[in-house]
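Recap from last week: sequence in, structure out.
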Amino acid sequence: MLRKVIDSSVAVKWVSADGELHLQQADVLLNEVQEAKTELYCPELSKYEIGNALWKKSLKAPEAAGSLATYYSLPITFVPETRERAERTLALSNQLKMTYYDASFISLAEELDKILITDNAKHQGRAKTIKVIPLEKYK
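Predicted structure tokens:
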């Protein structure tokens, strides 16, 4: 079974499709998970990012709560932060000139020696220590 790290730019497509691109590719990935061909990993931080994305979309409270519940029910392994990963994330953030949030997904992919799938390839693609696959090219 393949193991992959996804970032919030991918996961948000499964909980609120409004205004999102590359939905078909995101669904292909989710189908792989449901067919037990792939396991997905995210840092715990992604829960906060999804909550923030739902807030930015100005969803009504019941819809946002349902979307958040959907996210928590997805077959994703949420990895808690450690001090060591936090230090590596901070170093990556400085080195790659990106937010700590974006660097946290790269740091996790490095640690797990996994591919990172993102719809934010402009930023995540700066990482040279891992393989990054833009969601738009996912098949």
